[in-house]
Structure formats: C-alpha cells, structure tokens
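Colleagues,

For the teaching module next term, I've prepared a clean inverse folding example: a structure given as tokens, and then the sequence designed for it. I'd like students to try predicting residues themselves before seeing the answer, so please don't circulate the second half yet.
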C-alpha cells in the first residue's frame, strides 16, 4: 500500500474518531436558577455554557447527577443528548430538583476523570428571583439594580419556573412559541411582570399572544398574575421603588424554629410507599419452607441412593423449580398480583381546565426491571426521592420527558413529577362575597364572618373531598348546599390551622395511620389533604425557608380536594391502576 493511501486512511480515522466524541469540553459559565441562586425544595433551572475548543465534534449524552466524594454518582441522573461542533459553544440546560442546597453535582460527558465538571457542594440559595429580562443580543442592555437574565434561556415549560417571582421588562422578546407560552403560563399562575420605559422612552408595545401585557392602567390582572406599569426609565427602577409599590423582596424566614417538616418530599414518600402492604399468608409460606427443606434434604438424599444419579439430579432440579414457582405465586398473591401507583398532587389553575401540577408518586412493581414512566403533559419534569438512594435510573426532562426507573421485585419507587396537564375545570361562579354578622368568641373576641357562596361549573368534581377558601389571614370551610357551596362561619387563623403543633399532629397521623386490612390505600390518601393545603399556602411549619406573598385585599384562594382525574395518572407498562388525591388551587378576584 502506497504512502499517500496510508496517510489518507489514518487521517480519515482520526477525523471519524474526533466526530464521535470530543473529550476536551469546557464549562465556561454556570447560571443557577434565574439570579445565580437556587430555591431549596423546588425544581431549579440550571444553564451551563459548554465550549468545545477542539477540532472534534461532541455528539452524545450529557449527565447531570448528584455525585459522591470519590467520583461516583448516586440516585437517578438527569440525561440529555447534546451536540457541540468544533470550536463551538452552546447553552446546555437542566431542570433539577434541589433539596437543601448542600448537594454536590457534576456535569459528566464521558468516563474519564477529565470528562466532567464538579460544582461546589454548598450552592448559593435564595428566594424566588426578581430579574431583569434582557435581550442577549442587545449590547446596550443594562439591567441596573437587578440581576439580568437572558431571554434566550427562559424555560420552555412553566413547570421549570418555580424559582421565579417577578420579571422586569422594557422590550418585546422574540421568543419561539414554547418559551412564549411558558412565560404566559407563569404569569397566569401568579407571576408579576413590571413594565418600564424602553429605549424609546415609552412602555413597550406587545403583539400576538403577548398582547395581554398591554394596557392603560397601573395594574392589569392576567389570571392569578399581574402586569404592573412603572412610567419611568429603566435606570430609575430600584428595589426601593418596588417596595413602595407593594412589591418588597421575597425574604428568608427566620431560622427554621417553627418548622416541624424539614423534608416535605421524604414525609410524603415514606407514607406513599407504605400504602402497598402485603397480605402474605405466612402460615402457608412456613409450610412450604418446611416441605422444601425436607424434600431437598433427607428425602433427596434417600432418593438419590436408590436411583440413577442422572434421574436424581433431574428430579432435584424439578423440585427446586416447582417450589420456586410455588413461593412466587404465594408471595405475589400477598401483593394483590397487580402493579399500583399512589399519588398526591397540588394543581394550580392556568385556566380552561389546564393545571400546573406538582405530584408526589410511588410506583409499586411486582416484577423487577427498568420501567419507562411518563405522563400526558407535553413537557415532563421528574426527580427521585433522594440523592442518597441506591436505586439507579435515568431522568430525561423536557418535551416528552420520562423517567427510566429501575424497580426491584416487589418494591416501590418514589419520585416527584411536574407538568401541565388537563384536569377538572372548576368553572366557579361566585354568587355571594361579603362580610356577615360579627361572631363573638370568648377566647378570641369579636370576629366578622365571611359570607361566600359559589356555584360550581359542570366539570366541578362531583366527588369533592373537601372545599376551603382563604381570605386574608383566615381559612374557611365550605359546605355543599342545594344552592351551591357556601360558608358563613368565622373560619380559622392560618397560623393556627397550619401552625407547628397542628402540622406536627397531621404529619404524625398521616405517617402512622392505621394499617388495618379493612382500610384501603384509597381511603387513607385523603389524610394527606391538610399537608397538601399547608404546602400550597406556604406554611412556616414546612421548611421552605422563604416567605410567601400575602393575598391581595380583593383576592380569595379556593382549595378543592378531590380524587385525581385520569388526565393526571402516570403511564407505564403494567401500571394500570392509580390511587390519587389532588388539591386544586384557584385564585378568584372580587370585581
């Protein structure tokens, strides 16, 4: 073979090798959340600028995982395919559940020690952010007194915006439909948009779907969110300005002296996993065990001495197989011979029967294997129970997201899911809203009652488990009457209803409820409703660390607990049954 041909083949081999994987990647910038900080106990948007300084092409999976000190990983890892061309850069984004903020994470793109980037164990934490949305291509954009966030990095699903409180905007973003819709869903869910004068000295004018941001007044409601107009230049808007308008920064709570639930996820996971309890016939297993020992012991020994060894070996193997089948049948009958899912959900209204849903689930499997678990949401976000768990799996978040879960035989896997799904459209029409006569309490003194009555829509859950309403600092229980749902009582102060002592009792009762055989898992799930309500309302007894914004004077928050609709159910091979409870959260504003 001639020299030029050898050189050409070697050159092509090197090119092809470089096209498979470029090892010398660099992580040049990391943006945690929206303002450089993460919100503990929530999904957080993490953006990393990855550069490929070499001449090869990287085209393969990247993994973002909780790591151990010696380089290993633990729990299920977040995975996504990534392409970075030679001498190129690109933003790689993961939506990750952050527990306490003390986890250590690594971005891994290969097996080598140099094919990973490890981040600080103590992540910067903070409240949901107020950021200045900027056009990354505008070199003259100056965010001033607020942290800047590039519009190109905005999430493509509202499920990834839990760490965002408010946005300051002075121009028309040029978003593709997915980011635009996620922004509008975030606004309808309860976000705040502050508009200021742009480069032309006037408020920006929005078109198409973003036209809902236009208006003449100082404040416009969009769903549960609001658009606030500040007729001033961008340089004049400061945190003090927002505070004076009634939008102070979201501050940290006092050190968690009030908290009795320090890990809300684990509290629910432990209970959900315990709902599937075996009803094993132990007496039958004991008899089978005794017979098995007798047959493979003295009986097999005596039989082997009287027959050909080949028949003896065959008979021994047959006995082992028969008893293995018998043990499997008896054990499986103890678990009801079915794979089951238990779920608890909080769903916040986006309008039109669309809900931004947070779910805590436990999937019980009767056979070991890797299961593909997913939901009907267009984009799914998943996270496993704890970074300390030993069970493996892969999480592919985003459009068509799914959880590839390794579940051992007769075991359950607990995880969290976020997504926008179709559920019951409450269709509430308020018919009465006002103060009633004064109710005198010997202990608390005079208290005005609230007269609230609403007419449910045609899709309102017919089997609603409870209905409550929050107004001001009180929560009221509503009862179903012939004319609709109504309350006339004086309610209960929120700090008492979901305070330290009450929530401790609720948590203990839920985690230690009777496991009597006559009580079904579906019957025990509603015991968690007060815990879901407390989480939805930001109770200080749950260690979320950051205060919630108070409701407006003309705002009422409706909490409707009901069995989870079919649209919220998990999908996976062999999982045909799910027991679930959801707390719908919908904000209503008095005209």
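(Answer key — instructors only)
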């Amino acid at each position: 073979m001639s020299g030029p041909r050898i050189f050409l083949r070697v050159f092509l081999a090197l090119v092809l090798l470089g096209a498979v994987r470029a090892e010398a990647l660099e992580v040049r910038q990391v943006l945690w959340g929206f303002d450089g900080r993460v919100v503990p106990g929530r999904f957080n948007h993490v953006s990393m600028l990855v550069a490929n300084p070499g001449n090869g092409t990287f085209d393969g999976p990247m993994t973002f995982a909780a790591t151990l000190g010696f380089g290993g990983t633990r729990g299920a890892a977040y995975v996504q395919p990534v392409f970075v061309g030679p001498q190129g850069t690109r933003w790689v984004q993961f939506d990750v559940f952050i527990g306490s903020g003390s986890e250590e994470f690594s971005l891994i793109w290969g097996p080598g020690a140099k094919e990973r980037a490890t981040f600080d164990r103590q992540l910067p934490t903070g409240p949901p952010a107020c950021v200045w949305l900027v056009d990354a291509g505008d070199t003259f954009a100056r965010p001033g007194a607020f942290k800047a966030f590039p519009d190109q990095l905005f999430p493509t699903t509202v499920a990834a915006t839990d760490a965002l409180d408010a946005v300051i905007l002075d121009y028309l973003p040029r978003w593709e439909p997915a980011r635009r819709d996620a922004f509008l869903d975030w606004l309808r869910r309860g976000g705040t948009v502050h508009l200021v004068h742009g480069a032309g000295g006037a408020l920006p004018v929005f078109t198409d779907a973003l036209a809902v941001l236009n208006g003449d007044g100082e404040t416009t409601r969009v769903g549960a969110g609001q658009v606030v107009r500040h007729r001033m230049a961008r340089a004049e808007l400061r945190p003090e300005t927002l505070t004076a308008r009634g939008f102070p920064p979201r501050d940290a709570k006092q050190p968690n002296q009030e908290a009795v639930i320090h890990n809300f996820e684990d509290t629910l996971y432990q209970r959900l996993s315990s709902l599937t309890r075996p009803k094993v016939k132990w007496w039958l297993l004991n008899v089978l065990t005794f017979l098995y020992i007798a047959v493979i012991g003295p009986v097999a020994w005596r039989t082997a001495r009287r027959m050909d060894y080949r028949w003896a070996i065959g008979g021994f193997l047959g006995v082992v197989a028969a008893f293995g089948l018998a043990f499997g049948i008896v054990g499986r009958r103890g678990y009801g011979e079915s794979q089951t899912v238990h779920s608890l959900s909080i769903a916040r209204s986006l309008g039109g029967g669309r809900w931004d849903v947070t779910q805590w689930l436990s999937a019980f499997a009767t056979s070991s294997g890797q299961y593909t678990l997913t939901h009907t949401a267009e984009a799914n976000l998943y996270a496993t129970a704890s970074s300390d768990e030993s069970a493996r799996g892969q999480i592919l978040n985003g459009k068509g997201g799914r959880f590839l879960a390794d579940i051992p035989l007769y075991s359950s896997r607990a995880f969290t899911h976020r997504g926008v799904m179709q559920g019951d459209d409450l269709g509430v029409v308020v018919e009465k809203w006002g103060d009633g006569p004064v109710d005198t309490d010997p202990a608390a003194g005079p208290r005005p009652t609230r007269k609230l009555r609403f007419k449910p829509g045609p899709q309102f859950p017919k089997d609603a488990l409870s209905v409550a309403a929050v107004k001001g600092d009180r929560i009221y229980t509503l009862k179903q009457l012939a004319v609709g749902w109504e309350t006339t009582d004086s309610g209960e102060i929120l700090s008492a209803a979901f305070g330290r002592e009450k929530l401790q009792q609720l948590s203990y009762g839920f985690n230690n409820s009777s496991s009597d055989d006559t009580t079904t898992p579906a019957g025990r799930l509603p015991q968690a409703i007060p815990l879901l309500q407390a989480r939805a309302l930001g109770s200080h007894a749950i260690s979320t660390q950051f205060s919630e914004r108070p409701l407006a004077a003309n705002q009422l928050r409706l909490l409707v607990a009901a069995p989870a609709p079919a649209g919220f159910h998990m999908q996976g091979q062999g999982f045909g049954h799910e027991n679930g409870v959801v707390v719908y959260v919908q904000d209503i504003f008095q005209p």
